[in-house]
Amino acid sequence: MDETWQQLKEWIDASRYIVFFGGAGVSTESGIPDFRSVDGLYNQTYKYPPETIISHSFFMRRTEEFYRFYRERMIFQGAAANPAHLALAALERRGKLKAVITQNIDGLHQLAGSKEVLELHGSIHRNYCTRCGQFYGLDRITESDSVPKCSCGGIIKPDVVLYEEGLDDTVIRRSMEHIANADMLIVGGTSLVVYPAAGLIDYYRGKKLVLINRSVTSRDSQADLVIRDSIGAVLGAVAGIK
């Protein structure tokens, strides 16, 4: 096993309150594209920039066009949990990992078996009526040909955080509390450029900050251990997941 991987395993074995903070890179190994890579969402050609389409104002003004893009580019029903998701769920079952904080909206952490998952940007699996508040599952979105409607006639909106919308205060507070209490913080699959989410790691006060990412991040110099490799391979190996 690589020296840095071995160090990670030893720290995990010695820790009692591990928190994982992850981004799009955790799910790219499940076939879900990220936003900023060559093949990412922001480099696709559409009539409007993706940042505009997935904004609150665009949803309100051009709801049908929003849903056309949303179904095509942001829902991946065939995606399966990869070794990173499975490893984190295993560490939680062992009592090591106390929380997964994710910027992803795909629900793969829950699919893998994780229980304490804090979704900073919401989830495609939750959708609600903008008129009466009734909640619906993902099938209500995928089985509709245009704008999904509630039984009351109201428009259904995905419970995801669009541009121009704020993060959920309760989720943020719980994330801050977990990070502040952690004796080990593993950050993986994120470039740490999206705020305010990326700023959450500033609440960590421990001595075992681990960054696992294929590329350099702006926080590498602050980390106690940096691993530039596949997050699925790394976590899968140290957690004994094949």
From TrEMBL:
HAMAP family in the record: Sirtuin_ClassU
Class of enzymatic activity (EC top level): transferase
Protein name per its UniProtKB record: NAD-dependent protein deacetylase
Annotated Zn(2+) binding sites: 129, 132, 150, 152
Keyword Zinc (UniProt): yes
Gene name tied to this protein: cobB
Required cofactor names: Zn(2+)
Lineage of source species: Bacteria, Bacillati, Bacillota, Clostridia, Lachnospirales
Domain named Deacetylase sirtuin-type: residues: 1-242
Organism: Enterocloster alcoholdehydrogenati
